[in-house]
Amino acid sequence: MATRTSTYVLNASYAFSMYDSLFDANVTMDCLDLLPPLPSPMKVFLLVTFVSVTVVCGVGNSLLCFIVLTQKRLRSVTNLFITNLAASDLLMAVLSVPFTLHYYLHQNWIFGAWMCSFVGTVKLVSIYVSINTLLVIAVDRYYGIFRPLRPRMEKGRLVLIVLAIWIVSFLVALPTFLFLTTSSPTTDCRGRTVQMCFENWVNPSAANGYVIFITVAEFLLPIYSMGFIYISIAIKLWTHRTPPGQVTPRHREIMLVRKQKTIPMLITVVVAFFVCFAPYHGYNLALTYYQEEWHQTVPHFYSLYYITESVAMLNAVISTFIYFIMSPMFRKEIRNLAGRILCRCPPVFLGIRRVSFHSAASHTFNTTRNGSAIRKPVGLGGPDNTLETKI
Where are the membrane-spanning stretches (predicted)? Predict the structure, then answer.
């Protein structure tokens, strides 16, 4: 009987960093099988989940980013923050999910030590960017509702906030980047030469402290803060029908309609994030305190991990659908974009090809196919008013 000494600890080290520190105590076995074979239903589940994330987020979020960045009238503060959310999910879908899927299905990391660190870090940074951006959006909406006379956020300040979100998210994920590595090639029980991608923490207490810190700083506190903010906003909007501020009655009406369409979408995004990530964080906390007990006593230990991670990954897919289902503006722009691609013609609205321009008298002239011009004052709402088309 061959004897192997290993330190095997399956510690999800918070994020999707595969498997944490290998090997804990002396373990005697005929051969080393770090990960048991996946049952076929679990392989199908992982395949469907991860492919959905790659396709839906890759296509949907690319379209969303393209629409907002190419349509100047859509570059509101909230839209640009939502674009940042979409960009983080797109980054994960393209640069991380395919490699993780291959690793889980084959249970063998073949991409090298550098890609191990890169893929795991990209996942974490994407998750932290999402939650931090959602928190910033909530704070911006709070000030927009309760302090409507405050000057609008300038684009330069918005860029600085977005950069700060990415920098902070990377710094929070830095321990994962530093400790992720690959194991030495090992022959498993099936006669294969395999490598593991894992976090090699020298100090187990530090690893557990990191899991707790991430759970509190990047999940519990942001979720609690956003819950308080959106409850306050909902009470303000639905109990005070007229937004405060020295604006015209028509302007107040348009602002109210726009906010009532935006706030439910943002609340839905936050709720979806909580529902998808709460099981994963709960799993990691339980694993932190009951590592040995869970590994030995919890039925389908590995399958439970795959399921909780897959549900968390599906949050990116759910968010993408929410943006397009609950936002008439995004749906309209997708239809216009599809029309331009398929027909190679300008956007069509109600069968009229529209070319808009502003005269010195601040009026909009919409030219129809027969050459006649329809004169319509600007600023009174309707399809040409950018205030209603922005989120």
Answer: 44-69, 81-105, 111-137, 158-180, 210-231, 262-283, 303-326
Q: How far, in Å, CA of 302 to CA of 12, rounded? A: 11
Name the DSSP letter for residue 350: T
Nearest to 88 by CA among 319, 293, 253, 244: 319
Paired strand residues for 5: 26
Question: Exposed, middle or buried by CB within 10 Å (0-12, 13-18, 19+), for 212?
Answer: middle
Q: Which two tokens stand for residue 21?
A: 């520190």
3-class SS of residue 41: helix
Report the helix count and the strand count for the chain, using DSSP H and E.
Answer: 13, 10
- What does the pLDDT profile of the chain (391 residues) look like in tens digits? 333 322 223 333 333 333 333 333 333 344 555 566 778 888 999 999 999 999 999 988 998 888 888 888 788 888 889 899 999 999 999 999 999 999 989 888 999 999 999 999 999 999 999 999 999 988 988 887 787 777 777 878 899 999 999 999 999 999 999 999 898 887 766 677 788 888 888 888 898 899 999 999 999 999 999 999 988 887 877 766 554 555 555 455 555 555 556 678 788 888 999 999 999 999 888 887 776 665 565 556 777 888 899 999 999 899 888 877 777 777 777 777 777 777 765 544 444 343 333 433 334 434 444 444 444 433 333 333 333 333 3
Considering all CA atoms of the chain, what is the largest pairwise distance in Å, rounded to the nearest integer?
92
Whole-model pTM: value is 0.74
Do the strands 197-199 and 180-182 form a parallel or antiparallel pair, or are they unpaired? antiparallel
Whether residue 35 contacts residue 46, with contact meaning beta carbons closer than 8 Å, is answered with: no
Residues 6+ apart with CB under 8 A from 303: 39, 42
Q: Angle formed by the axes of helices 301-325 and 40-52, to 10°?
A: 30
* Helices 301-325, 328-343: inter-axial angle, 10-degree rounding: 80
- Classify residue 197 by burial, with Cβ atoms within 10 Å: 0-12, 13-18, 19+: buried
